[in-house]
Write a structure and sequence with these properties.
about 425 residues, two-stranded parallel ribbon, 21 helices, mainly alpha, globular, about 75% helix
């Protein structure tokens, strides 16, 4: 998908100021996405890194705080903060206050399941809210997407180091060479895989192709199954966007590989597992796939049953902020969490609006469209079995992008009206 020249520069008189603002915001947003991902890779695979998790978290938070403080004191940046962004933030905290009035144990109790509420609130304040603010203040997403693509080598190095650590008994989370189930590692490497897919679509170099294959192998062996779903959907979507002869060739290759894997599914998996076990390595994901439990829900259906039964007692209003965490610890479904938070009616409208907005943003032939597509592929398919409303940073990033898009459209409409008015006054003088 070719990157179009920024429309802001054509329609806004102070385009240079907006460009500098976008560059500064894009740098902070890229660091906010990449730095925690690198940390999560190491912590999810290495016992040595996990032992220093609190220290690493403090370092990450410290770096991000410095960047955000510098950013918020920059007049060229803070001027982009829209009133609707501020209004949404205020509404969130009012919603939290109402939830606390209803249950005053919500943010202070450290016992189960209230300890999950505190961790979810921390995630919202550290990830969802700041990224929502940043992306709502941006006008052009070229800089952010380019920054993320340039960070691919860094992400790949950390993913590889973490994977090697998972194979070394003295460094791995497990004392045996059993690759551990790590959602943190899988989600972090997913960011790398999707960015590499985008780079492959722009320019298919052998190095990028090898790096992408290895990243998928890392997730398959030591990550959760959720990221694999997003990668598969991303490959299908990007394949559909190809044109001409290239699309036909790639489709034939993928179809041939799929048919071969389907026909020899058991034999292939058995061979791979035997090869790994001969080297003392065991993968939970591959074992589940071989035993026809690739779609095993890990007990999530029990959580869903509890939440739905409780939700049906208040179907119109829902149960309020973080109610899913209070009921079962983690809802394990973004969509169910939205319903239990807002009720079926408002929750359904919110989900429908989010999906429609994501489709519209993704259809743009621009960096905004490419970034929205990657984010949508990350959040919506996996929303059926993971995630929650306030901690899904990808969903909040889409909210921010939608606000930015609306501001851009209003600005273009205003500029168009001003231009027509000037033309009209000029014609009247002549």
């Amino acid at each position: 998908m070719p990157i179009m020249e920024s429309e802001i520069g054509k329609t806004t008189p102070d385009s240079e100021r907006l460009k500098r603002s976008d560059e500064r915001i894009a740098f902070v947003a890229a660091v906010h996405l990449v730095l925690p991902a690198c940390k999560n890779m190491l912590v999810g695979a290495s016992s040595l890194a996990f032992a220093y998790n609190d220290i690493l978290n403090a370092i990450v938070i410290g770096v991000l705080l410095v960047l955000y403080v510098r950013l918020l004191f920059d007049r060229t940046v803070i001027g982009n903060l829209s009133s609707i962004t501020v209004l949404i933030i205020i509404c969130c905290f009012m919603f939290f206050a109402l939830a606390w009035i209803h249950d005053n144990r919500l943010f202070v109790d450290s016992t189960f399941p209230y300890n999950y509420v505190k961790s979810q609130l921390q995630t919202f304040l550290m990830y969802s809210l700041p990224l929502f603010m940043l992306l709502s203040m941006m006008r052009d997403y070229d800089h952010l997407l380019n920054n993320l693509l340039q960070c691919c080598p860094v992400l790949f190095v950390f993913a590889s180091i973490a994977f090697v650590c998972s194979l070394v008994p003295s460094l791995a989370i497990s004392e045996s060479r059993t690759i551990q189930y790590s959602m943190g590692y899988g989600n972090a490497v997913l960011l790398l895989s999707l960015l590499l897919l985008l780079k492959m679509r722009r320019r298919k170099t052998p190095l990028v192709i090898v790096a992408f294959i290895l990243s998928v192998v890392y997730i398959l062996l030591s990550g959760s199954r959720g990221p694999l779903l997003s990668i598969g959907i991303a490959m299908v979507v990007l394949l559909m966007m190809e044109k001409g002869r290239k699309k036909i060739i790639i489709s034939l290759v993928v179809l041939t590989a799929f048919v071969f894997a389907t026909l020899f599914y058991t034999e292939l998996l058995s061979t791979i597992i035997e090869f790994l076990e001969s080297r003392g390595i065991s993968s939970r994901t591959l074992v589940l796939m071989l035993s026809d439990q690739a779609f095993y829900d890990s007990g999530r259906s029990d959580y869903y049953s509890v939440v739905v039964d409780r939700l049906n007692e208040c179907p119109l209003t829902g149960l309020g902020a973080f109610s899913g965490e209070v009921l079962v610890g983690l809802t394990h479904s973004l969509y169910l969490d939205i319903f239990v938070t807002f009720g079926y009616f408002i929750g359904g409208l919110l989900i429908a609006w989010s999906v429609i907005s994501a489709v519209k943003l993704s259809s743009e032939n621009s960096s905004r469209g490419e970034l929205a597509l990657l984010i949508s592929i990350t959040v919506f398919p996996r929303g059926f079995f993971s995630g929650s409303f306030f901690t899904s940073k990808e969903l909040w990033m889409l909210f921010g992008m939608k606000i930015s898009d609306r501001i851009n459209r209003n600005q273009r409409d205003s500029d168009r009206r001003n231009s027509l008015a000037q033309d009209l006054r000029g014609s009247e003088r002549t």
